[in-house]
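Lab meeting, action items carried over

1. Structure of the two-component assembly. Owner: GW. Status: complete.
Input record:
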Amino acid sequence: MVYLDNAATTPMNREVAERIQEAMQKYFANSGTPYRIGLDAKRLIEKSTESIAEHLQIPSSHRILFTSGGTESNNLFIKGLCFPDKKTAFLGLEHPSVTESLAFFKQFGNDPLSLLSFQVEGRLDLNSIVTIKENRVKLLCLSHVNNELGTVNDPLQVISALEKESPQTKLFLDGVQAIGKIVLNPDMWKGLAGYSISGHKIHGPKGIGLLIYDSRLVLNPQMHGGKQQFGVRSGTLPLPLIMGLETAVKHAVVCAEQTQKHLENLCHHLVHGLKILQEQLPELNIRFNSLIGNNVTHQSPGMVNFSFPPVEGEVVLHHLEQKNIFVGLGSACSAQSKEPSKILMGLGLSEEQARCSLRISFSENNTLEDVDQFLEAFGVAYQALYPTFLQKA
Amino acid sequence: MTERKTVLVRYDEIGLKGKNRKYFEKCLLKNIKRELSCSDDIIYRSPRGRIFLDIPSSFAPECKARLKFVPGIASFSIGVSMAPDFEAISALSVQWIEPKLVSTGSMKFCVRTRRSAKSFPQTSPEVNFEVGSRIMKQLSSKGLTVNINEAEYILEIEIGRLETVVFDNREPGLPGLPVGSSGNVLCLLSGGIDSPVSAYMMACRGCRVHFVFFDNQPFLGRGGYDKVLSLAKKINRFQTRGTLFVVPFQDMQSAIRDHCNEENRVVLYRRMMYRIAGEIADRYNFMALITGESLGQVASQTLENLAAVSCVTPLSVFRPLIGMNKESIINKAIEIGTYETSIEPQPDCCSVFMPKNPVTRSKIPFLERDEQKIPWEELRDAALARMEIIKVDDL
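Predicted assembly:
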């Protein structure tokens, strides 16, 4: 099997799975109870939390909360901080868990400011900061790495621009697609109000994520109950998942440089291969929606999104599936809708270009042979399908 | 000995049958036995007009839930079999009524007797009076009153030749005819909202419904296939022993798309589906095709287009939803539990295979001319050769 949809999820590392299994059998006690086995569980959670903080170099000014994943982290921070009337802004190319959380405020007369007119190649143009200031934006929400394109909003650049031009605006980054793919610079923490991470995107377990946020901020809880985790996120803590996540974070950080380099090789090989394919097949016209080049402050090497009208991405995807090759749609329909997502359309692509696209996303497990297999199968599928779609066009 | 209960099952339309009534009764009894085969401690009796099940009390809740999946039952009651002894009946009734009375403070009640054993010395009104007055003697001081027309609690007594059953509940069953009494039919199942409802409706008319699905893999993913598996399983719950035929349709669809007139495509796809379904029906002796079409709902469901597809097969084509509007179909789908599955998003091939302007009043000679452009017999046989056959019970 060739798995090239690592932005959707990643296979769990064996080490992670083993640690979870062990914890599930050994440590069942509720970490909120006062007796010994409960306190043991609590101690293990504290240890994992410390280890995560240490590996990510999170300063003591920031708090780490365990959530059910990226979606919850994004909801909790945005709604917890800005509900109902704090002014927010976003680029317009974020994951639905960000855009929909912001859209939720509309019913209270608080329209989030879209900066889509300031997007350049999928990234925020920092000339927008003036507008952000004029609109007295309290929170700017961005993807660190865009979930469909892999384009990067460099935290340090955004932070320094905000500090200079609009110091009252705080920055929240959805970091779900960043960690494990690109090296995180720990200098970013002090300028960040909040940051989200998901376990299953870094070979960890599903059902757990992190919200890392400036502990001076008051977040209104979205989940009420036993007041666990400072009362901000109630619910018995899932010790096995936390230990699994710790292992995954540790691995991601320790291997970060090596992984980034490996992904750069894969990415370069893919782009090069697609260009050659394009030369060989006169009917194939590729438009790269991701940025091409080796600048990780602009583009994650873990993702390549490209369009190839008139052949539809979803149909190619199923043809590749027949060959046991699994890729992502360039414009993922959200689970409930068949419309192409707003991201590629937001870049200015036509609906056809958006539909006729794929997203290849790598992990450290992929090899150059995987890319070769994909390129070959893609070429075959494209040639087979082209006549059918040509007639339609 | 474990405590026992008696379930009294009332037929629906079988009650109207004449000489062949026995056949329908046998069918229903067989279906009930199959549905309740999870328990081996049930005694079945079927005197005229009724089916009695003697079950362990502990099985009553499960029995109640399971009987609701057996078409052909007007209603059923779970009660107790006993001798037609007024004292004993009253004593038991007091036990049933008293706790309810205590919690409400007052209650209107009545006794209704049905006497199929005419040899029994008292008439039904006399039994009502005898039992009712005994109960009143004990409970009137606690707030029980008799009210025949607005009773909040109805105690029922059925006095038969062999046994007398006392009960205080009536559960609605699934009306219609017992599955299998009408024969086997084949339903074209799409994964949408309508076709599962039409299959269910035919199961309630005594048909054992089998299913055929036209699959678009690898053009589309396995999503549609999985959905149909799940729908077939849900409908099969009402009948058991259904078969699902999955026919690879991609090559046929591509051939039509590439060689025939664009506006005719949809009707041509459907004519081929009907032909293939007809072949399957012939092989397995299914007696009719069932579809979820509703007149005028979409372009392919106009009178002209329905006629243009029906004429390719000599089989009867039944469309139980033909006169229903979308809302009533949706309500039915919710009721039978297929709606949630049907509305799961499923990739469709609209953008590739559907014409921009599909014909609404197709002309059969034009369709036939289009069909001459493709080797459809070959494509049909190839699809049938690669057909997957799934026993829905095994899913």
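2. GW to write a short summary for the group page. Key points so far: Residues 1 and 324 of chain A are 5 Å apart (CA to CA). Chain A has a mean pLDDT of 95.
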